Amino acid sequence: MSQPIRLKDHEKDARLVRNRVVVGAVAIMLLICVLIARLYYLQIIQYDYHSTLSENNRVHVQPIPPTRGLIFDRNGVIIADNRPSFSLSMTRERAGDWQVVLDNIVEVLELTADDRALFEKRMRQGRRPFEPVPILFELNEEQIARVAVNQFRLPGVEVVAQLVRHYPQGAHFAHSVGYVGRINEKELKTLDPVNYSGTHHIGKTGIERFYEDALHGQVGYEEVETNARGRVLRVLKRTDPKPGKDIVLSLDIKLQEAAEAALGGRRGAVVALDPRTGEVLAMVSQPSFDPNLFVTGISFKAYAELRDSIDRPLFNRVLRGLYPPGSTIKPAVAIAGLDSGVVNAGSRVFDPGYYQLPNYDHKYRNWNRSGDGWVDLDTAIMRSNDTYFYDLAHKMGIDRLSTYMNKFGIGQKVSLDMFEESSGLMPSREWKRATRRQAWFPGETLILGIGQGYMQATPLQLAQATALIANKGVWNRPHLAKTIEGQPPVDDNPMENIILRDKSDWAKVTHGMEQVMHGARGTARKAAVGAQYRIAGKSGTAQVVAIKQGEKYDRNKLQERHRDHALFVAFAPADDPKIVISVMVENGESGSGVAAPVVRQIMDAWLLDEHGRLKTEFAPATVTQESAL
Amino acid sequence: MNNFDRMLSSEDVMRRRASFLQRIHIDGPLLVILLALAAGSLFVLYSASGKNWDLLLKQATSFGIGLVSMFVIAQLEPRFMARWVPLAYLTGVLLLVVVDVMGHNAMGATRWINIPGVIRFQPSEFMKIIMPATIAWYLSKRTLPPHLKHVAISLVLIGVPFILIVRQPDLGTALLILASGAFVLFMGGLRWRWIVSVVAAAVPVAVAMWFFVMHDYQKQRVLTFLDPESDPLGTGWNIIQSKAAIGSGGVFGKGWLLGTQSHLDFLPESHTDFIIAVLGEEFGLVGICLLLIVYLLLIGRGLMITAQAQTLFGKLLAGSLTMTFFVYVFVNIGMVSGLLPVVGVPLPFISYGGTSLVTLLSAFGVLMSIHTHRKWIAQV
């Protein structure tokens, strides 16, 4: 303790610390300024940016899909409605590892690996972020319960009730009304992304497709506030969707069923039109399929079965089936002959059973090898005399014939509102030069006169060509929709009416067609026995395989599916036509023997009441007066 | 005990008539500011917690406990503190070692001492006050500015708990404790050329830390800080959302309870570390500036106490505590506004959390003690 005490210089220490306090205070002020500058930058300069960011965080716009318009038959029977259905949907962003969740779904619902592959495909088609993607439809009670119990293993998965298209009439209208199906990637690119933002289904074929815009309606919106986990907390604003328009079809379900019954399970097609308006009353393509399969997604196996079936149920024979019209075209050819002055009602042709062009050896045969002798127009139609029409066609030439046939709708799309109608083919010199690089041969004109050769037409076109004769040249495009939300469909591209130099030509041809049904030697007279009304008709046969020169058609040599298709067109009552029917029976061989009875049966179904008498609305005016007396 | 102190206390010191607050060793201005902050905290917390009264009650309770702790500590004379600081330091280091050896796991990091039913606390919190006190105690006995030898010994004293806390791992707290010790050296007049060379050396050290010390989650924080947009739904989410919250507040904010970012859960940690974003969203630039002004008043008072402290120990300790407090504020607001990487530092007095509140109030208890135990000299 002898050492001197080392005294500290307290004044110096205090000064030192005070200096450091000043330095510290300055540093603090500077750093506070840095903070304020930063906040100024965020809150003033970047205000708009961050404001938007935070609004986008919380406000989400959710589309409300419109309810699809309903489809009725002409009597108000429902053909397509919307049914609540439970579907399983998944939001990828909320599922975490969605592949694992898919595995869990498959396990919970005891599904197969195929289903899983389908789910995965659907998930990959998922559209915008945070949008639930429906992966499984038509859940039953048990499945819903299973999902509920296992919810903890299924993050991002929910059972959603939504309206799904349903076709209560099943296969009856699959080819006319068509069906809706899930929107695919390709359609997605062409669709209005706004209007379809809440829609999962779109019309794929038929009326559903053609009137998609009207049936779909206008999407509605809901601006909702969501929290960070995407839960909707409240609705900020709502714009209601505009439901799709209801469509009343001109089809009549009873006639449709009658037509199907008349075909009796045979493969074939039927079109029934009202010639006065162009309304399609029945449209059958058999076999058919259940359109409900396609709504929620058909399984690959079921689709392959339909697609690969030899009977081709998916094939729309009415609109896409192309057949040589055969003799059913003869009435139209006859009109062309009369109007162009090549023939008149009295001019006659001698039929030895064949026709020969001058300077050619080739014999163009009449179906009746023994020949009909001297034939005039009326007889030619009644007997379906080929020789007469070879001669007529030869005299007309291809150019005029082609022009007239085009006026009758051959080689044109005739319908107003049918999806994927085939235009058929009416050959011409130009067509042959362009497609075959060959000159036109006179012989090719001849066979066109009897509806063979290059000419191809759909059953719908045949019906329309017949309707033009029934309606004396006045065009009404065949259409399926009678009204769309009360408004009849508008024809933006009307066909020109056929105006003949002599209007009585219509009656001359019609008379020939009446003779087919009612004449003593009419080819289809058996089909008209006991009819309460006059029918004008014409049979036809469409070759499936060509018969070589000098050979005879021998049904026994041909496989069943290579036999000729039977065709028949007709209208009734002949003097005041109310219905036009075109029938095609695949491999039916005989137009008058097989197809004509089908036509008769359908006509009876439409024109007669339950007592087998002509319905009053179809009876001629004079008869009504008599019965009134 | 310091000879000079004894001399002062025994000789012609004129005790000014002390007010009631001074007699119970409470500093009036500090108390008012602290109470204002507490009220503000509850106000903002009510909104940030989604109107959670339980949480408010807990925070208010913590605040009460903190005030008691502050009051008790304010009664201790600085001389008494200085006497017990070495022991407290050794105890603290020992507890940190205990935590290191057999600590209780929480949030992937080992920070807690937990004797179930008895006590559960973080020794590192304790060190936030003990560390600057220890260095102040050590340096107050040396000549200032400190010699290299004394600086080196101080660095060892700082380094041991620092490394133990880094190992927990809790880099944020470790750095704050490092800072609190370093501020004592700074207040003690550490030579500028040494300060400059340390700052220059910090760069290679930081690089070395990156490769050898930092955990993946810490590295991730730094990476996210540098480019939050690189992972907007993952680790960048916090910072993007907090910036959006602050930015969308604008000048006057969206209004109390009307902040969408926090109320719709877009803002994570909205009632703890990121609470300033709630304030910024609901009260705008004006709200944050008001808070900063209150903080500045607090800091100003702290620096005044530093300047007026009569003992070197008091000066060094008060200065360090005040500067460290500012660092808390700066680091928190800096990180939430995207200036600094995200480190787990709460906003003093506003963020929810009892531990930090008690620690902070205890520190202000120390400041009050330093200020109210002064002896009054005639000419002052």
TrEMBL record, chain A:
It comes from Pseudomonas capeferrum. Keywords: Carboxypeptidase, Cell inner membrane, Cell membrane, Cell shape, Cell wall biogenesis/degradation, Hydrolase, Membrane, Peptidoglycan synthesis, Protease, Transmembrane, Transmembrane helix. This is Peptidoglycan D,D-transpeptidase MrdA. Its main location: membrane. Belongs to the transpeptidase family. MrdA subfamily. One of its GO terms (molecular function) is serine-type D-Ala-D-Ala carboxypeptidase activity. InterPro entries: Beta-lactam/transpept, Beta-lactam/transpept-like, PBP_dimer, PBP_dimer_sf, PCN-bd_Tpept, Penicillin-binding_protein_2. Residues 268-604 form the Penicillin-binding protein transpeptidase domain. It is found in: Cell inner membrane; Cell membrane; Membrane. Catalyzes cross-linking of the peptidoglycan cell wall. NCBIfam families: pbp2_mrdA. The keyword Cell wall biogenesis/degradation applies. The lineage of its organism: Bacteria, Pseudomonadati, Pseudomonadota, Gammaproteobacteria, Pseudomonadales. It is an enzyme of class 3 (hydrolase). It catalyses: Preferential cleavage: (Ac)2-L-Lys-D-Ala-|-D-Ala. Also transpeptidation of peptidyl-alanyl moieties that are N-acyl substituents of D-alanine. The chain crosses the membrane at residues 21-41. Pathway: Cell wall biogenesis; peptidoglycan biosynthesis. The gene is mrdA. It is a single-pass membrane protein. Residues 63-236 form the Penicillin-binding protein dimerisation domain. Gene3D superfamilies: DD-peptidase/beta-lactamase superfamily, Penicillin-binding protein 2a (Domain 2), Penicillin-binding protein 2a, domain 3. Coiled coil: none annotated. The active site is at S327 (acyl-ester intermediate).
